[in-house]
Amino acid sequence: MNKKLEKMKLKELWQLFPIFLVEHNKEWIKWYEEEREMILSSVPSKSIKRISHIGSTAILGICAKNIVDILLEVKDKDNLEIVKNIFINSGWLCMNMAENRITLNKGYTEHGFAEKVFHIHIRIMGDNDELYFRDYLNEHKEIAKEYETLKLSLWKEFEYDRDGYTEAKTDFIKKYTNLARNSYGKRY
Fold first, then answer.
1. Alpha-carbon distance 121 to 40, whole Å?
2. pLDDT of 44-72, one tens digit each?
3. What pTM does this model have?
């Protein structure tokens, strides 16, 4: 019998769900749209301020983990908890909870990744740096390719260390997020 995900240690989870990159898949946008529709049908509209496709699957033409990231911005802290509970009751797993941020996932099984995998990042409206980064890379293809090169160079070194992989990309992401914020002003 397989161990439940909730009972696994972090290193066990990293072994079961390694970092892997695939060529850009045009289906990711469709996956996002389908999941967005499900979210809109299950979460009260008064709780939702904005839903956005973020992460590398939202950056055209670059390799990415086969995981669609969704940013769900809510109006206030009370709605964080309300929305989190709706997702948990729908079978999503809570990955991380901080004071004003909640991350859940869907598509992780005791046997590894399902065909479609999602991360949803629930935040209070305005906590959305990922939108600036996404848009900047989509508008600057050469920077997007630099990001892809960085990700590919880190893949095997951090294949079983998600935290290390994320940390190794942080300076690049911060640099271009700040550049985007300075270029775009208060876009979001």
1. 15
2. 999 999 999 999 999 999 999 999 999 99
3. 0.94
Alpha carbon of 98 to those of 1, 121, 133: distances in Å? 32, 11, 22
Q: Find all residues with CB under 8 Å of 60, minimum gap 6, and list them.
A: 24, 138, 144
Six-digit token pair at 76?
Answer: 């206030």
Mean pLDDT over all residues of the chain?
95
* CA dist., res. 173 & res. 180, Å (int): 10
What gap in Å lies between CA 10 and CA 18, rounded to an integer? 11
- Nearest CA to 5 out of 108, 156, 118, 128 is that of 108
CA dihedral 34, 38, 43, 45 (to 10 degrees): 60
Total count of residues recorded for the chain: 188
The CB density around residue 81, as the number of other CB atoms within 10 Å, is 13
Question: Which amino acid would we find at residue 130?
Answer: E
Are 129 and 80 in contact by the 8 Å Cβ rule? The answer is no
Taking only the tens place, the pLDDT of each residue in 3-52 is 888 888 888 888 999 999 999 999 999 999 999 999 999 999 999 999 99
Please, which residues bridge with residue 5 across strands?
none
- Rounded CA-CA distance 137/54 in Å is 11
Pairwise CA distance, residues 70 & 125, whole Å: 14
